[in-house]
Specification:
By secondary structure, the protein is an alpha+beta fold. Helices cover 31% and strands 29% of the residues. The chain has 12 helices and 18 strands.
Length: 363
């Protein structure tokens, strides 16, 4: 079975300035049906299921419980089944357009890799060796081992998660989970399409991403978490997964060497090298300062990319324009770099010809 990489959780924030239009889309047309739920969440008072062609396609949350949150802020979570189907980008954009809302940011993204074909050792053996300290994780982290107690401990997976961390990781028996909870035929179908013969259990490695205000990931000159179109790309999604796995999900045999990094590495699955750049925004900075840091990074990337491929500069320039408009920072940018933002699109690359990297200054 080939490794099957897919999005397994997609939740994003949006702004709604016309709730009449939103409710008309849900109540006044034949396209959607809504089901109001009795209980909301800790963050939102109201929770609706959005139904299309007799299937739930999304969960809609609105009316923030905290007065600190913008009253126009809503949250949309795409139903799990549709994350495994073609046309995910079209579905997301269609929901946004029909409800009359504007994408704001991602809330949570889970990307997973499913396979029954592991390299160095079987996942169950890996988990046992980790529990007995024969295998160690490289890098500081916290985690836990879910288990069952029957005739001895039976470990079913492993989870690594730090409080307030950007990422969390899991390795677990997905076949067992579906047998014990809910059989998802569309997941099994995706396995079969990739050569699954049903003889062995499928294990899943999962990376969960949140706190997107603290990170900007750049792939091929494009910041992939700025909007739905840059993220929902079937070439980009595996690269995001490989990047975070390569960065934080690394293990070695415990050979008791003084330098831990010299221990023999454990290889579970084939990991491709992903040419990505992560900008971490640490601390409790205000949003405007965070955004300016991102814009400065983009501007420096553009300046350094002058001698490289035109497409790379084009991607960075598009992201720069997006952030300037989204966060109303055109005036700040014009004063800082003496550039009229209204003609950036018109003149594109020629606009940056006289600009040197020496002009780049962190705010």
């Amino acid at each position: 079975m080939k490794d099957t990489i897919n999005v397994d959780w997609l939740c994003f924030n949006a702004y709604c300035t016309d709730f009449n239009r939103l409710f008309y889309a849900l109540k006044g047309t034949d396209k959607y049906i809504y089901e109001a739920q009795e209980v909301g969440t800790i963050v939102y008072k109201k929770r609706y299921y959005v139904i299309h062609d007799r299937e739930k396609i999304a969960t809609l949350l609105f009316e923030p419980t905290s007065s600190l949150l913008n009253k126009n802020l809503i949250q949309i979570q795409i139903a799990n089944k549709f994350l495994y189907a073609f046309g995910l980008k079209k579905l997301c954009n269609e929901i946004i357009n029909d409800l009359g809302v504007t994408f704001h940011s991602f809330s949570r993204i889970d990307i997973c890799s499913d396979t029954d074909n592991y390299i160095d050792l079987a996942p169950q053996e890996f988990i046992k060796k980790f529990a007995s300290n024969e295998i160690i994780k490289l890098g500081k982290t916290k985690g836990y081992l879910p288990f069952k107690s029957n005739k001895g401990l039976q470990f079913s997976g492993i989870t690594f998660k730090n409080k307030d961390s950007i990422t969390a990781f899991k390795l677990y028996n997905k076949s067992l989970e579906m047998r014990e909870t809910h059989e998802k035929k569309y997941i099994k179908e995706s396995w079969i399409e990739n050569g699954y013969d049903g003889e062995k259990d499928v294990y899943r490695i999962e990376v969960s991403l949140k706190n997107f205000s603290q990170q900007m990931l750049c792939i091929d000159g494009e910041y992939v978490f700025t909007n739905l179109d840059t993220f929902i790309n079937y070439t980009t999604i595996p690269l995001i997964f490989f990047y975070y796995i390569n960065r934080s999900f690394k293990f070695a045999y415990n050979e008791h060497k003084k330098n831990v990094s010299e221990n023999t590495k454990v290889k579970l699955i084939t990991i491709e090298n992903a040419s990505c750049k992560l900008i971490k925004l640490n601390g409790r900075l205000d949003t405007s300062r965070n955004t300016r840091i991102m814009i400065n990074e983009l501007f420096l990337t553009i300046a350094k990319a002058k001698q490289k491929e035109v497409e790379e500069v084009e991607h960075c320039l598009s992201s720069l324009i997006f952030l300037l408009k989204k966060y109303d920072l055109e005036d700040w940018f014009e004063k800082k770099y003496n550039i009229d933002t209204s003609i950036i699109d018109k003149y594109r690359l020629d606009l940056f010809t006289p600009i040197s990297t020496e002009l780049f200054v962190n705010d």
